[in-house]
Amino acid sequence: MDQNGLTKDDRTFGMLCHLTALVGCVIPLGNILGPLVIWLIKKDQSSFVNDQGKESLNFQISIAIYGIISAILIIVLIGILTSIVIGIFWLVMVIMASVKANEGIAYRYPLTIRFLK
């Protein structure tokens, strides 16, 4: 147990809730499916994993919505720029959240719509 009362497994699975979103780089909607699988398996075993799983899912669903809007905006060309910005923002936020969760810190993504509470 660390100073936050978390075990190494809690921190590891909390980190995986965020890190598995990178599956979306290979599999369509993998950015949602990866965190969903980890969250569903571990949510009842750890309140930290439950919290971080919901946070990751909320962010991934929000980013998917932003991406769809950005794709539509490609028609008026601004969508090209917004797609690039969203992609970079997504990658940086996923990495930051993964590192923080591995440190046992509950991470909160900015610009996230809270679908799961």
Fold blueprint:
Blueprint: H1 8-19, H2 30-42, H3 47-73, H4 78-102
Helix pairs in contact: 1-2, 1-3, 1-4, 2-3, 3-4
Question: Would you mind describing this structure in some detail?
Answer:
This protein is 66% helix and 0% strand. The chain is mainly α and 117 residues long. Helix 1 runs antiparallel to helix 2 (30-42), helix 1 runs antiparallel to helix 4 (78-102) and helix 3 (47-73) runs antiparallel to helix 4 (78-102).
- Globally, the shape reads elongated
Radius of gyration using CA atoms only? 15 Å
Into which percent range does the helicity of residues fall?
Answer: 55-70%
Strand content: under 5%
Please report the total strand number as a whole number: 0
Average the pLDDT over all residues and give the rounded result. 95
Low-confidence stretches: none
What is the terminal-to-terminal distance?
A: 26 Å
Number of helices: 4
Structural class: mainly alpha
Order of helices and strands: HHHH
Brief overview:
It contains four helices and no strands. The protein is mostly helical and 117 residues long.
Give the key terms.
single chain, mainly alpha, elongated
